[in-house]
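Late entry, written up from scratch paper. The run itself happened at the end of the previous shift, but nothing got recorded in the book at the time, so transcribing now.
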Amino acid sequence: TGKTEFSLTVTRNIAKNHGSVLFFSLEMGNFQLVDRLLSATGGVSVKKLRNPAELDEGDYHRLTSALQEGRSQDVYFVDRGGLSADEICAITENHISEKGAPSVVVIDYLGLMNHKQERGVNLTQAIANSMSKLKAFTKNFNIPIILLCQLNRDVDSRAVKRPANSDLRDSGSIEQDSNVVGFLSNEETEENHEGYQRVKFSIKKNREGDLMDSTFKFYKAQMNFVEEFERR
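Output as recorded:
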């Protein structure tokens, strides 16, 4: 549920607090990502952004403020598809040389990376090799990586659909190599009358702290997550 939108919400909050983000989008182009950032920052639906005739004066005012805010922030998008772990690390090293070290690197998402699966090497091992390279990079450069990942389809067939670590798709190395593993799951299947769904973010592995749940309001039209309750 909303992996990209959640990572963009994290990106906006890091940037608002004077951090910088290098965001690798292997699925969406730069214009789509900027639309989503503007929508979330300005509180204007993506549908309206794509149909300017629907925008009113208040929308234009909010979008102008969102553009001004965005220009002052350090968010860098790389929208090349099919990048390998080696290429992501090389691009990040070049970014560090030119712009300085980012506060965080976001990769959207693992399943669209080129894992350079050679003959005789299965996909699970190829993904493990990619994870090992990303793990070494984040350790050597002391830069956290947020790596988005899909779940196995088996979770949809269960009576209780809240995901667990075993649901991570394709490789156990994802859980093994990660310092923190968090899952998004629907608490409500449809938007309520206030225009949002409740979504739970559950941390199921945390080498640095406690396991916890947080509940968010997910405003799908504006591509934005807002924390609803205190963590527990």
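The CA atoms of residues 11 and 172 lie 27 Å apart.
(Scratch paper discarded after transcription.)
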